[in-house]
Design brief:
The complex is a heterodimer of chains A (195) and B (299).
Chain A lengths: L2 E6 L5 H4 L6 E11 L1 H9 L12 E4 L3 E6 L2 E6 L12 H8 L3 E4 L8 H7 L2 E4 L5 H7 E8 L8 E16 L6 H19 L1
Chain B lengths: L2 E2 L4 H18 L3 H13 L3 H20 L11 E7 L6 H18 L25 E7 L5 E5 L4 H4 L2 E6 L4 H16 L7 E8 L2 H12 L10 H14 L15 E9 L6 E8 L6 E5 L5 E4 L3
Parallel strand pairs in B: 2-3, 6-7
Antiparallel strand pairs in B: 1-10, 2-4, 4-9, 5-8, 6-8, 9-10
Helix pairs in contact in B: 1-4, 2-3, 6-8
Classes of the chains: A alpha/beta (195), B alpha+beta (299).
Chain lengths: 195, 299
């Protein structure tokens, strides 16, 4: 398992293709915060997002913030939510907006494997609940759109040494979640035979 | 342990709730810290170690930065043990807990999660209709009040499961359902955490017991030796599944299994599973009849 540093947004697809399930990744640059209602507005209501998502790293989050002034927010506690609820947005995020990485906790179901393989995307697993640490790695909230969806707005964060992340699903058809489930199911058969 | 004295019991209970809610979110109990450290000592997978080391680092950062351990401030749940002679009526205790929860949310400020269940509109400052959720026990021949605050995150609460096993399914049916639930949950509830299991009673009571089980200190054992044996069996079996920290594979899938039981109908065998994430937050206070508050993190 290799260790990588990747700066987002990416322009070179090779930056994504070099990553393999299980690898450790630390992220620099800019990342976009997004959640259920943000993506429902984009895809179910057909509203164009007012931020460029090409080559982007999306984080499943609804941050705790303090308002400083119009459109300006200070971070209080920023953590990551369960990704599985939002898996259906994976393919359109890739095809319509060129998103390259989705980061959350708990993993994506197997239906994400094929579109991520086809579109050259990865899923990064963050450590769920480790929000105090995550907050220190977010340097600044640079932009916010759709404030009326607070806290499920569209957020732009500048990050430094964001991680460690684990590649959960890579762009080559690999998924740690599928592998872990397959092994666990086999193990359950052994366990049930012993009960 | 710190002590404060007020004369107004409404205010005392409200203050205790406000303090407990924030404190629970920032400073996790020692038994949980020890369990996480032990997990890091035994985990052999690379990804599992990466996760557990990050968790331990996060607990320290929360302490240094005086920040929340996890951004999910949860749904506020309180467990109250009310003495028969405690001078404040439970209706007033409830109002004070609600006031304290709201005050903590505004003053910190904390992220507000509570929404109307149909419209999904935010209902205010982590309070709303029937929120906070309060569980009651009434204690004869006593004049005190114990309050335990358990802010419950949604990632783990979404991984709650109920099965009405039949009597012929026996203990085997109980074990299979718990195993199936935890393997199916995978990384979603932020493992390794505490698995709460409620058995017996009725459908609703089994889930109530499962929730009560996750609020116990990590590694405590049920007083009934038969139930304690089930806890140990399930702990061993769940840690054979290889789900591992954050579901990325590894040796440590759960920190502890707590089972609570009630007698049941001869044709019932209900099993409820309620998961508590690794950030198993809880904090307690004892309020005396004169309003003196004594805080206890590890109860």
């Amino acid at each position: 398992m290799a260790t990588h540093e990747v700066t987002f947004p990416v322009t070179d697809p090779a930056e994504i293709l070099k990553l393999r399930a299980g690898d450790e990744v630390v992220v620099q640059g800019h990342i976009i915060g997004i959640r259920d209602r943000t993506q429902m507005r984009i895809f179910d209501e057909g509203v164009e997002p007012p931020m460029d998502l090409a080559g982007a790293f999306l984080l499943h989050t609804a941050p705790g913030v303090r308002k400083l002034g119009p459109g300006r927010y200070e971070k209080i506690c920023i953590g990551t939510t369960t990704s599985a609820r939002m898996v259906r947005f994976t393919e359109p995020l890739g095809t319509q907006y060129g998103v390259r990485a989705i980061c959350g906790k708990g993993g994506f179901p197997d239906e994400a494997i094929e579109p991520m393989h086809r579109l050259g995307m990865v899923y990064f697993a963050i450590v769920g609940g480790a929000a105090a640490l995550e907050t220190t790695q977010i340097e600044e909230i640079e932009e916010v759109a759709w404030e009326e969806l607070m806290p499920e707005c569209l957020w732009k964060f500048r990050v430094k040494d964001f991680g460690p992340l684990t590649v959960g699903i890579d762009a080559h058809g690999g998924s740690l979640y599928r592998d872990v489930q397959e092994r666990a199911r086999k193990k359950l058969e052994d366990i049930y035979a012993r009960l | 342990m710190t002590t404060a004295t007020t004369t107004d019991l409404d205010v005392a209970v409200g203050n205790a709730a406000a303090h407990l809610y924030v404190w629970a979110l920032k400073d996790i109990p020692q038994d949980l810290r020890d369990a996480l450290a032990r997990a890091a000592e035994t985990e052999t997978s690379v990804t599992g170690q990466r996760v557990l080391q990050t968790i331990l680092r996060n607990v320290n950062v929360a302490e240094d930065e005086k920040n929340l351990v996890c951004q999910d401030t949860g749904i506020a749940v309180y467990y109250c043990r009310v003495g028969e002679h405690f001078p404040l009526h439970p209706a007033r205790i409830y109002a004070a807990l609600k006031d304290g929860t709201e005050r903590a949310t505004i003053e910190h400020p904390l992220r507000s999660n509570t929404v109307h269940t149909l419209t999904r509109e935010n209902t205010g400052q982590n309070v709303g209709y029937r929120v906070p959720i309060v569980h009651w026990d009434f204690i004869p021949d006593w004049d005190g009040l114990d309050v335990k605050c358990v802010p419950k995150g949604s990632g783990s609460e979404n991984m709650s499961f109920l099965k009405m096993c039949v009597p012929a399914d026996g203990v085997r049916g109980i074990k299979e359902f718990v195993l199936e639930s935890i393997v199916g949950a995978g990384g979603k509830p932020c493992p390794p955490g505490i698995v709460g299991v409620g058995i017996g009673g009725s459908a609703d009571y089994a889930m109530h017991l499962a929730k009560e089980a996750i609020a116990r200190p990590v590694g405590t054992r049920n007083e009934d030796p038969l139930v304690a044996e089930l806890e140990d069996d399930l702990y061993g079996l769940l840690n054979e599944t290889g789900i591992g920290p954050m579901g990325l594979g590894g040796d440590v899938t759960v920190l502890s299994v707590h089972v609570e039981h009630a007698d049941t109908h001869m044709t019932l065998n209900p099993v409820a599973v309620n998961y508590q994430c690794w950030a198993a937050r809880r904090a307690s206070a004892h309020i005396a009849a004169d309003g003196a508050i004594e805080y206890e993190r590890d109860a």
